[in-house]
Predict the structure.
Amino acid sequence: MTSMLLDAVTLMLIGMATVFCFLLVLTGCVSLLTRMAPEQASPAKQPQSAGNSPNSAHMAAIASAVAQYRKSRHSN
Amino acid sequence: MTSMLLDAVTLMLIGMATVFCFLLVLTGCVSLLTRMAPEQASPAKQPQSAGNSPNSAHMAAIASAVAQYRKSRHSN
Amino acid sequence: MTSMLLDAVTLMLIGMATVFCFLLVLTGCVSLLTRMAPEQASPAKQPQSAGNSPNSAHMAAIASAVAQYRKSRHSN
Amino acid sequence: MQWGMLLMIAVGALLIYLAIRHKFEPLLLLPIGFGAILTNIPLAGMSDAGGMLYYIYEVGISTGVFPLLIFLGVGAMTDFSAVLGNPKMFILGAAAQFGIFATLIGAIALNWVPGMSFTLEQAAAIAIIGGADGPTAIYLSSQLAPELLGAIAVAAYSYMALVPVIQPPIMRLLTSKAERQIKMEQLKPVSKKAKILFPLMVLILTALLLPTATPLVGMLCLGNLLRESGVVERLSNAAQNEIINVVTIFLGLAVGAQLSATSFLNVQTLGILLLGAVAFVIGTAAGVLMAKLMNVLSKDPINPLLGAAGVSAVPMAARVVNKEGLAANPQNFLLMHAMGPNVAGVLGSAVAAGILLALVG
Amino acid sequence: MQWGMLLMIAVGALLIYLAIRHKFEPLLLLPIGFGAILTNIPLAGMSDAGGMLYYIYEVGISTGVFPLLIFLGVGAMTDFSAVLGNPKMFILGAAAQFGIFATLIGAIALNWVPGMSFTLEQAAAIAIIGGADGPTAIYLSSQLAPELLGAIAVAAYSYMALVPVIQPPIMRLLTSKAERQIKMEQLKPVSKKAKILFPLMVLILTALLLPTATPLVGMLCLGNLLRESGVVERLSNAAQNEIINVVTIFLGLAVGAQLSATSFLNVQTLGILLLGAVAFVIGTAAGVLMAKLMNVLSKDPINPLLGAAGVSAVPMAARVVNKEGLAANPQNFLLMHAMGPNVAGVLGSAVAAGILLALVG
Amino acid sequence: MQWGMLLMIAVGALLIYLAIRHKFEPLLLLPIGFGAILTNIPLAGMSDAGGMLYYIYEVGISTGVFPLLIFLGVGAMTDFSAVLGNPKMFILGAAAQFGIFATLIGAIALNWVPGMSFTLEQAAAIAIIGGADGPTAIYLSSQLAPELLGAIAVAAYSYMALVPVIQPPIMRLLTSKAERQIKMEQLKPVSKKAKILFPLMVLILTALLLPTATPLVGMLCLGNLLRESGVVERLSNAAQNEIINVVTIFLGLAVGAQLSATSFLNVQTLGILLLGAVAFVIGTAAGVLMAKLMNVLSKDPINPLLGAAGVSAVPMAARVVNKEGLAANPQNFLLMHAMGPNVAGVLGSAVAAGILLALVG
Ligand code: NA
Ligand code: NA
Ligand code: NA
């Protein structure tokens, strides 16, 4: 019982140490990464963020198709 | 080793013969088929091809969106 | 053979009795249920029936979102 | 043997023809027909151990999982409002199940015919064709008489497709024109709360009265609860689309793979086809007669045509009722009213399957 | 026995009620509640060998495949921009995992209470509730303590739903109004390349530092790579929709099927429910205190409320942070900033699960 | 050992890089690359008995089910109009399969090289790379030489992605500019009936002439029938979307999991990569030469470039043909005509796989 409690305390110490170590290393790596691959000009951003949520991109494409189609129709 | 090579050559001969035989027979059958079930009036064709390939309809919508978008962009 | 027929007849009697019993009890319960949870005012009904055809609900939600967004934008 | 296989390939082609040309339950009969062709190609071994159809059968049919998943999807696609708005319709859904139990006796009686021989398990599996519900029939025969599964599934789906041919003569024979012209009262609207509580109530009743029907009824109720709860739209859509579509392809193929020459080309299959037709006829008649009886006893008028919808065969039977109603009176729209006994019939035959599993299985 | 089953059916009904009426994690708790009802219907045998729930459990839970597929979908649905734009947030995601390890000690300490008895494996499986992440909890307890799976999953999802009730008092207790009013700087924009490389980097780190976390973290990273790569939209959509929806139904049912009377109606379940609440409280407090510490040490101001989002419970905890921030200052929108520790917390608890698997499993 | 794993992780990363940056068959190479990384993480054990990748491989690859399901989806996505409107194109789809059988001899001949050693089964599995069809290659090598599956799949998909690099020089070498400028006549329109009967006809021919090709050809035909029948759009969509997308993720992961250091880092892999390139080159050349021969013999002119599309690699090879045609004459649009030999090549290599299964398996 007491030995199990000791095991548990050891687990906690190793566990929190590992979690912190892992996420601290990750913090460093990510800082490096974002510095080495910085976000460029703003026009590049627009299509990308759309690309991330594919359904909305889809909707947008269709919506724009419809819009353009109507426009072209009215202009004819 | 030489016997395996012989096996391989035999395989090639039988294989290519079978492939050609199969696809020649198919060519004949398809010619017969398309002659016996010819395409009729054109108006029937439009809705069918659209209904059958849902993705291409999708693609077409998107393609047209892109095309319209580019056009509108160049014209501006 | 005759014993199997007897079994079958018994099955029929028990079976139809159970089916009727089950569905009669259900009839009673449903009557009770609809009386205890009656349909309220009509405006509540509209969104619910929309909820049944989820895609159209989706479309409606998006459409209304767009509409609200535009409204809010124009008013500012 | 070769001739048998050739004949079975022809049967498969016939099913595909009926599916495409005459729209006979194409979602099932097309894959079943294709499976029948695949399984009867000599040396292809697609249904032998290690073949794809073998795996699909073992995973989905002999475990009973595929029909249960179809039931999940059916539940998510079914709107029980019509029967909740007029609960008396449940009684029509009960009456039409007489087709099942009468056919059970018929199957046993056929044993007198030389060369015919059905065990009680087989008779029960055949009888369920009268439930006019594909997944119920496949589930029950996978549990009671897997050797007849192919023939039973083919008979069930074929007769479901033939409902517009089989039912009208019986309906007209048993009703007067005046009866067919009876207009129904407006259905009561049903609250969202009642719709949510309904599947749970059915599940509880099943647990209390007929636990062996739990798998079928339970999946139906789960699907319906996903639909009506309104809080898990993602899951409801998955049940109605992804799950049911994918499972339908595999279920059809695996059922078709049971149509081997040895298991289909025999006198039993003739018996099954005969009994299936009888089951539909008796079920329809029982439903109509019960509706007539209710019309006499009840203070609200009930159009006896509605009884025919009790066999289920959703939504075909309801459409047939509507059409016959319109034929008698062009202003008499019965479709929504017929959906009541129609969906009640799905529950009714699941209950009947539970009884057969409990007493015969 | 019968009474136990009845009580468990009531528990299932309660979960369904909470899911529908109070929107308590309905995607999971509705199927779990339904599974609990199904498994406790006497004579239905849906969880016995040969029953549908038995097959689903064996295929998806005892192999660990279902929670991993959920993680695949979660990865495809998660946008890590918020934490990439401010990597210090990872530290908050680490701190909140203290809830897990403190609860582990608490579970062992509960062994002093007469009648309570948890092995180290069981204690670890219970502790992971503090990770506030459903699939992680299910995965870990399926590997370490399958006998507690039902209770652990119910506790995990229930407390995740209760995050808006549990967290605010702790957050307010540990912070001053001035702290809660702290505004965060604008997040740095993140390039597409960084977003693509991030999941691969996490995977490599996991391989180097903690290989036992590979299954969970790997599936999360695969899903996120499908999403961010931009070249496999079909697969990303499949992971976010078809796969996660279908698996959620089956996972919920199979978890619910573990809620049998014998395994749930005992004093251990009380312990689990108690420890789960403790885990959430300690995790929240640890996150907030770490944020306060960072606020002292760092030159950029950090709103201590953000620490509470580190427990994960995506996206509920981030919304709670936002609401508390607005309560302190109606112009203080913290939602996007809180998504950082929120998604970091998902990674943090997957890492913690890997540690527990390595040292206890 | 550790070094081998590290190298394999680098190989996986390279595949992911090619998939994302250069769009090398990303739908397959991204999951394959990720699977390669996962399987080579020491101590993670994802491909060991009990690991997720192990289960996926056992369920989907060693049974052959996943490639067959991909073929189902491919069938549902393929429009055979182009080849039905000009059936002579089937001959080009046959000629290009010479790449397969020539490579078979090449693989056996490589046994003279010290350290290389291929059995006839392995040679056949390698040769099918020349079919330029991923699922066919995976199916055949899962049946004949599972130990080479990873390398064969990687080679097949890599060379398919490299078709725009490999084919043009050969096409230009073997044709004159005048030949490349040849315009094709308008394709004949094809009736709906012919499109429906075509997959059934192919299936019957397969049953009669080459039953061992039934699984692959059968699934392709079923998918195409679902598509063309017009009565089961739900199922056709499920095959084209849900099924193929979900299976692609799992197939890719499980194939990638075969890329362990011991099975990939050896001289055999070099041989496979070399032979794969040879197969593509010979197949392309055979197609072009056959088209030149047909141009001489037939009264209708045939652009010899079309022969290159016979290797399949749908739709990349057809696009390459179109591009080369436009380079010779900016008015010469060959895309629709090239789709004919392109889809014929899919059938051709499935037939070739059937032959190899029958004679070598
Ligand atoms: Na029925
Ligand atoms: Na967490
Ligand atoms: Na090919």
